[in-house]
Amino acid sequence: MENSQMRAATVFAFIVSTGILMSADKPVKTEIATLGGGCFWCLEAVFERLPGVSNVESGYAGGKTKDPTYAEICAGTTGHAEVVQIHFDPKKIGYDQILSVFWQCHDPTTLNRQGNDFGTQYRSTIMPHDKGQTAIAEQSRKEWAKESKRPIVTTLEPLKKFYKAEVNHQDYFRLNPGNPYCAFLIEPKLRALENRKVIPKK
Length: 202
Prior knowledge:
alpha+beta, Peptide Methionine Sulfoxide Reductase, Chain A, two-stranded antiparallel ribbon
């Protein structure tokens, strides 16, 4: 009996050391959507509420300056837009569904402006990662343009480089609920989206 246990232990150790032992759960293959629609704090708070979304990161994309800072972005001189990268499981939520929420959580008809935030850094933009996303984004924009009372000004820009924003801008709404911007702008937006069933209630 002891010899059998020793052999079993030896075999198990070999399997582990060689990497033959695999998890029963297959790794989840995630995709990424990169979107800009005003302040990235707002978009982050919206998209992290969606089932199938595993992570949302705030950052900068679409400009010419390497490794831009938040101060440079706010100055509007880098060409970058404030964007979020949404990591999602395509088996649980599609890219077209991500875009559906995008159209409804900001105003795609105001050029370089969302509310009191104005400048090219706040432009409405979709930055597809591949040809498949580009095709879906083009079709989605056409469909929502038919529903809009005013022309949609959302740009489709190829994603060249994403710069993750500083750590204090990540998960901002959850960590700073008392901030006036969060309390008076983001919180009411989330409630309105909940009431319209665009995002689930907490």
